[in-house]
UniProtKB/TrEMBL annotation:
The organism's place on the tree of life at top rank: Eukaryota
Region (Disordered): 416-437
Similarity-based family: Belongs to the WD repeat LIS1/nudF family.
Protein name: Nuclear distribution protein nudF
Organism: Penicillium diatomitis
Amino acid sequence: MSQLLTARQAEELHKAMIAYLTAANLPQTCAALREELGDSVSVEDSTLKKYEGLLEKKWTSVVRLQKKIMDLETRCASLQTELDTATPTSLSRRNQDPVSWLPRDPARHDLESHREAVNCVAFHPIFSSLASGSEDSTIKIWDWELGELERTIKGHTRAVLDVDYGGPRGGTLLASCSSDLTIKLFDPADEYKNIRTLPGHDHSVSAVRFIPSGAAGSPMSGNLLVSASRDMTLRIWDVTTGYCVKTLHGHSGWVRDVAPSPDGRFLFSAGEDQVPRLWDISSGEPKATFLGHEHVVTCVAFAPTTSYQHLAPLAGLKKPPPSSSSAEFVATGSRDKTIRLWDARGNLVKTLVGHDNWVRGLVFHPGGKFLLSVADDKTLRCWDLTQECKCVRTIKAHDHFVSSIRWAPSLIKESHANGTAGANGEGQSSTAKDDPNAAHKMSIRCVLATGSVDKKVRVFAS
């Protein structure tokens, strides 16, 4: 003891021990200690109060510091890995090039107001509004730039399972779906007034997405919405009339997620039957099935055309598919803890292993180089498609299961953007679809949001 502590420190410790034993009502142990110490420590009963609780405080502070040290060591190891895998070019351009930007801790904002788990998030295609839906039956609208709550929408009677912005040209709407079996449409331009409720599903509606505009001159351009439900169907709705225009049957279990292709021609869906399906919207027929997952498939995503050049080599193609084709590659995430990349014919391209729990959300980087995922292991992971899908960054995104992730839609520099947000945050226009250099004409917003069972929405931004 004398080798580790100075005489003064040893005396302080002994006094604290005597005070602790006295407070704990252990008089015999206390007397034995006093006798052992003899004259080396004299502590008056009147001064014992000063040392009461000192030992407990020291103990708890040491445990706290140990946890902080462990957290810092983990963070340090993560940053070192990042440095080891980074190239000089990526290091020098990290802060300038949106195509290479990836989220990092700490988040810009922690948005807290929900009383229960957050199930979903969605960005307004133009303004700095972010919607979140929760188990508390509410939708909250945030200003993600300022980190402030703008309003709370109370429309559903049960948990809100998904939200999405989109709709007709010049008239962006917010759609939501719920365990109360309904889909609701709200008008952001009219203080988020509930303008329409779409009943029809026979069970919980688990996902809802606006379908981007089809071919020029299409009479249904920008007016369609797709929903996925526990009743094992997908339904396509006309948002201007509120009518269900098509019901797609094929899944044999709860349909957990659905995504429309950026050109609005195809749908990709998956769920409890473990068999994702690619659908042709015009015919309503399945185009391909994807076999391989060993558990429920919870999330799906279409790869943007900007990623074709990186995915083509993985698929064994000599040259990437044309950018005019918008449904060449897809991704799925599952409760089997894996992420799988596929081509449009149902062939497995790559299996990404790294998450330690159910994968809950996927989003492709608009620049095309990365795929981002979140899972019940509380992490956000970034996979580099140019490095054989290597996981190049892992962030502890939340303190509980991470339920959702969305990327802010890119702003199209041309004036003929239609105001809808495509899958994975791609803004859409005829130019963006046909032009191989579309990525350079799109202003990528380096902003993404995650939602979690910890009741928080976190915004990661450059």
